[in-house]
Design brief:
With 460 residues, the chain is an alpha/beta fold. The chain has two domains: 38-68 and 348-456, Alpha-Beta Complex (Aspartate Aminotransferase, domain 1), CATH 3.90.1150; 75-346, Aspartate Aminotransferase, domain 2 (3-Layer(aba) Sandwich), CATH 3.40.640.10. 43% of the residues lie in helices and 16% in strands. The chain has 18 helices and 15 strands. A seven-stranded mixed β-sheet has the order 4-10-9-8-7-5-6, sandwiched between helices. The chain has a four-stranded mixed β-sheet with strand order 1-2-3-13. It has a four-stranded antiparallel β-sheet with strand order 11-12-15-14, with helices on one face. A hairpin with a 4-residue loop joins strand 2 (47-50) and strand 3 (55-58). Helix 6 packs across helix 15 (331-346), helix 7 (124-141) packs across helix 14 (308-317) and helix 17 crosses helix 18 (436-456). The protein is globular. The chain binds 3-[O-phosphonopyridoxyl]--amino-benzoic acid (PXG). 3-[O-phosphonopyridoxyl]--amino-benzoic acid (PXG) binds next to helix 7.
């Protein structure tokens, strides 16, 4: 880091930020009222350091993305070397660069056998825009131009661009921009704790999947291009579908000839104990969205994995695909992503999550089940959630919704630990390098925060 960036005056920095910086997903007046932003200045392993010198355990991997942890010198070197050699060139107009070509091949080798091509974008949102365009273009080329509708789920998160937010099922986002765009339909999410009622999880998994089938029958299979889903909904609250759900979705997509888009932006690159969530959950995707863990967030890059069925149609019948971004396959970002994948392989991080830290996190977080305000804990690999409830049997919430989660999140903040609140669900997704002793710290802090939350709510 340059000295200029190190020699900041904290108060001045906060003022500049407050006066000029519009943060994402932020209530501007509210942020100012709370004294502005926390200034993060450094990262190492699973820890962040703020400008006041606090050491913070990052239970969220930044925003679900720093899979190999912070402070990886070799990722900085990969960027530096590539920036010196060739900082930028595009991948349009019959050109490529060594990192882009190698990364495409590497990512394809990790994807299913029938998925051999990759389209690069800059972010998860852009990749999902790409996917929407790919799916509609595919069906036009197949002579079925009416197959345009994309079915998604309520409370899904697929990004913040117009297509990303439309594909997502966050009603607050839709309201602010008059979304969703035409041709997108939302059905029930497979969220047993919140919406499963008296059904067993397995019954509910089938029930929720059949909502997709009902929607297809309602709008007509001849009008449906694709179904999109996160293997496990991340931002929605680490919603791990019942075991029956994805098998039924596979069946439905096959039966009605609908493309299956798997949004692996959070679940990819080891998070669930396999390279991808679709492997862990037995999903058969035609298109896969990747971002975040692809480069561990060190530089922005995303990718769409494109299955042979879609690719071959574009190849045989498509002519030019009129789509692409200035930064598609950016050489420095691609070089970092390649080195990042190398680190994940070399350090056996996927296996570590599957065999060691994933099971350990599952075991430790289960110990919180006895807490008076915990309704359920659930994990898959290094994704975990704690449901805060005011009635364990009825699975109901404290009023008003979201208050308990906010209190609990603030308690974590006070203890220099990051866990995120999705409404009243506390979620964690630590770096894949996390050690068992750090998982102990995370869960011990969680118990303290739940105690403090229960006290503030007048429960204990
Ligand atoms: N798909 C999924 C499944 C995501 O989680 C995106 C697409 C969009 O990626 P980009 O790179 O365009 O942001 C995401 C991003 C949160 C939070 O608060 C989650 C995301 C982004 C910002 C905040 O949990 N996920």
């Amino acid at each position: 880091m340059s000295e200029v960036l190190k020699n900041y005056d904290l108060e001045e920095l906060k003022k500049l930020d407050n006066d000029h910086h519009m943060h994402p997903f932020t209530d501007y007046k509210g942020l100012e009222g709370e004294g502005g932003s926390r200034v993060i200045v450094r990262g190492e392993g699973c820890y962040l350091y703020d400008a006041e010198g606090h050491k913070i355990l990052d239970g969220m991997s930044g925003l679900w993305c720093t899979n190999v942890g912070y402070g990886r010198k070799e990722l900085a070197e990969a960027a530096y070397e590539q920036l010196l050699e060739l900082p930028y060139y595009n991948t349009f107009f019959k050109t490529t660069t060594p990192p882009a070509a190698k990364l495409a091949a590497k990512v394809a080798s990790l994807l299913p056998d029938n998925m051999n091509h990759v389209f690069f974008s800059g972010s998860g949102s852009e990749a999902n825009d790409t996917n929407l365009r790919l799916a509609r273009h595919f069906w036009q080329l197949e002579g079925k131009p009416n197959k345009k509708i994309i079915i998604s789920r309520e409370n899904a998160y697929h990004g913040s661009t117009i297509a990303g937010a439309s594909l997502g099922g966050m009603s607050a986002m839709h309201k602010q921009a008059g979304l969703e765009i035409p041709g997108i339909e939302h059905v029930m999410q497979p969220y047993w704790f919140g919406e499963g009622g008296d059904m067993t999880p397995d019954e509910f998994g089938i029930y929720a999947a059949r909502k997709v089938e009902e929607k297809i029958l309602e709008v007509g299979a001849d009008n449906v291009a694709a179904f999109i889903g996160e293997p496990v909904q991340g931002a929605g609250g680490v919603i791990i579908p019942p075991k029956t759900y994805w098998a039924e979705i596979n069946r439905i997509c096959e039966q009605y000839d609908i493309l299956l888009i798997c949004d692996e932006v959070i679940c990819g690159f080891g998070r669930t104990g396999n390279w991808f969530g679709h492997q862990t959950l037995g999903i058969k995707p035609d298109i896969v969205t990747m971002a975040k863990g692809l480069s561990s967030g060190y530089l922005p890059i995303s990718a769409s994995g494109v299955g042979d069925r879609v690719y071959n149609t574009l190849y045989e019948k498509g002519g030019e695909f009129f789509h692409g971004y200035t930064y598609s396959g950016h050489p420095a970002a691609a070089a970092v992503a390649l080195r990042n994948i190398e680190i994940i392989e070399r350090e056996g991080l996927v296996e570590k999550v599957r065999n060691e830290t994933g099971p350990y996190l599952a075991q430790k977080i289960k110990e919180l089940d006895d807490h008076p305000i915990v309704g359920e804990t659930r994990t898959l690999g290094l994704l975990a959630a704690i449901e805060i409830t005011n009635d364990k049997a009825k699975r109901t919430r404290f009023e008003p919704a979201g208050k308990a989660g906010t209190i609990c999140r603030d308690e974590f903040f006070k203890r220099n630990t990051v866990m995120r609140a999705c409404g009243d669900v506390m979620v964690t997704a630590p770096p894949l390098t996390i050690e068992k002793s750090q998982i102990d710290d995370l869960i011990n802090t969680a118990r303290e925060c739940l105690d403090a939350t229960a006290k503030e709510l007048g429960v204990i």
